[in-house]
Amino acid sequence: MKYPIKVFNFIKEYKNEVVTIKDFIIGKRITLLVGKNGSGKSTILRAIAGFIKYEGIVEVSGKVSYMSELPYFPNDLTMDEFISSLNSISKIKNKESNIKELLKLFKIEGKRKQLLSSLSKGMKAKVNLIQCLMEEADIYLLDEPISGLDKDGVNYLIKYIENSEKIFIISTHLVSDFKDVSNEVINL
Amino acid sequence: MISLIKLHFSYLFSWKIIYISLIIILITMISFVFLSKFYVDHNLLVYYESFYLEEYLFSSISLIKIVVLLQSMFLVINGFIINKYDVYILIRRDRILTLTSKLMVLIIGIVIFILFLYLLMNIIGLFLTPYYQVDINLFEFLIDLVIFGVLYTLLYVLLIIITKNMYSLLIIFITYFVSSISLEYLVLKSDLSLFSKLLNLVFVDIGYFKNLGYDLYFSNLYYIALCFGLLEVILVFYNKNDIIN
Fold it and tell me: Which of B7, B92, B96 is the mutation pick for testing A, counting most A CBs within 10 A?
């Protein structure tokens, strides 16, 4: 898979603004999308994930997994129920041991029985990240993954990305955190 | 599909939602008890049995319709505004399957709720009053009520998918009241005003008609076809709209 993502003539019209994104091709394993607020970082990730309608061409080769900037968790569910319910609907189910490993990596295995609504912002960010990483995919789209994460959380994520062989596209304001691992930076 | 339905059930019918629904059922049950006029002298209830029966049925059915509309609105708001979890499912499954299973769960939920209220109305009538009798018209009423509940649930879903605003659902609720007011009691279907007939094309109410008893203005088949039509339109809009803004 040489070029997993190609974007041409991309325009997204919102109620009060129009987001235009210059053409780009992603060919490297770890790509950072950077830019000012409103430059379209989240918009392009949502378009790649197929969540929004737009004008232009977005070609995606491979299965995509996505982490939204804000969590949209269902209320009144424990972390365990949430994660296992998502795993149950995946076409390729992840092994329980892999999920456990992810929870261990991000140091939240002890919170499995806790209600999602009672988790701290940082914990919610980790669960949001884990639901994305546990999905078997070719391309992982992470929208501001370090917002809410503490220093350790950021390090665990970087370690995970480094050790993985999958493609990661990460939108971020803080290039410095990923500068050592990223292969490409696209300025929107 | 089964795993998707299970997921929607656990997301949409958490214990909090079930408790709230049970409280609504309890309050409605208490209302049925008082509407049954169980406290009125037994001889009086027997002497004027047709009057008391008619009054109990009319008040209880009016109450059930309003409670069903409110419960349906509550479930739709919970499923589409408060819990916006679709993003997690859509990365794993396609849109049509996701929404179809979600609608199925919502419809099953509202039908179970309707069955509870219907049973309570009958049980309270049978056990607390000397005048109550179950006739065939009440079974037909149950079918009408299920169609009524499903149709309004689909209307709510359609509007919330288009507007993404929970307050917009009040439009449907208010239009139901207009439809209900325009539908006169104990008239022939043919005597209804054109305005009422037009409203009942979509915003149906279960009226009490001369020679027919409780019934929908158009045939059940028409409203079932309308539900399938609405389902189709909902899927089109869901496919066309952005999932997250």
Answer: B92
Q: Using a pLDDT cut of 90, give the percent of chain A over it.
A: 9
Q: Which class does domain A5-187 fall in? A: alpha beta
User: End-to-end distance of chain A based on CA atoms, in angstroms?
Assistant: 24
How many residues does this entry show for chain B? 245
Domain membership of residue B211 as a residue range: 2-240
Split at pLDDT 50, 70, 90, the class of A165 is confident
User: How many Å lie between the alpha carbon of B148 and the closest alpha carbon of chain A?
Assistant: 28
Q: How many domains does chain B have?
A: 1
How far separated are the first and last CA of chain B, in Å rounded?
27
What parts of chain B have a pLDDT lower than 50?
none
Count of Cβ atoms closer than 10 Å to residue B9 Cβ: 16
Write down the domain spans for chain A.
Answer: 5-187
The nearest CA of chain A is from the CA of B14 a distance in Å of: 6
Nearest to A89 among B92, B241, B244 (CB): B92
For residue B93, give the nearest of B3, B19, B163 by alpha carbon. Answer: B3
Tell me what pLDDT residue B147 has.
96
ipTM entry: 0.86
Minimal C-alpha gap between B55 and chain A (Å) = 41
* pLDDT above 80: residue A94: no
Residue B245 lies in a domain: no
